[in-house]
Amino acid sequence: MDALSGDGAGLAAVRLGPPSRRLWAAEGPRAVFGLVELGWRWRELAHLPRGDGRPVLILPGLFNTDRSTIVLRRSLQALGYHAEGWGLGRNLGARSTGAELERLLARVAAMAEDAGEPVTLIGISLGGIMARLAAHRAPTKVREVITIASPFAGDPRDTNVWRAFEWATGERVGDPFLAARSAEGMRPLPVPSTAIWSATDGLVNGNICRIEGERCIEVRSSHLWVQHRVSVLTAVAEVLASAR
């Protein structure tokens, strides 16, 4: 893994195109391999830096529920963090009504109040975009943001899933509301942030999952089940440990 940072405005101004068909076709087999790897390397996770009990809220990706984040949550709980799922059902995005984002902001506020401290947000794919929006709108309630394979820094058409996104959310690429929300999400955050991304992602162009000026960590992974990869679980634990 390696980290990159810089002083530029980001990568959003240039259309980079979606991942190749070769990477897209390899998503399924590589995702299965990630699960197999997790099975035989699971014990290694017990040796990661210990947590300090801070509240961590994990947001699932498009179409997914909290079931998709069980491995990540259990890994962080075993290390000593108070990790919870977002509890808002299936993630279909922050639609134009704004109701979904308001529900997320209420969830973050309630968790922060219960814990007596700001909440760390970890978002997978679309969940990471929503985590960034929440941090912009409630910076006093959010301690830091970690995104995992989240295409927040570019055009939605630089992915192989933008049509599925339109179908699931009812939003349309190019809609003024979506463009404004995307611009908000890619602005530098008022809290510490880390973007975990992969150049071999088959569903979203890895280069739109990070911006210069914010910490980023490269891993080698598919997009599907990226949150189950040992390298990702390790990166998350190390980022949390470094933010004490």
TrEMBL record:
**Domain (AB hydrolase-1) ranges:** 117-156
Instruction: Give the Pfam families listed for this entry.
Output: Abhydrolase_1 (PF00561)
Full protein name? Alpha/beta hydrolase
Q: Which GO terms describe its molecular function?
A: hydrolase activity
Entry's InterPro entries?
AB_hydrolase_1, AB_hydrolase_fold
Query: Its domain of life?
Result: Bacteria
> Coiled coil located at which positions?
none
Report the source organism.
Sphingomonas aracearum
Going by the UniProt record, its keywords in alphabetical order are: Hydrolase
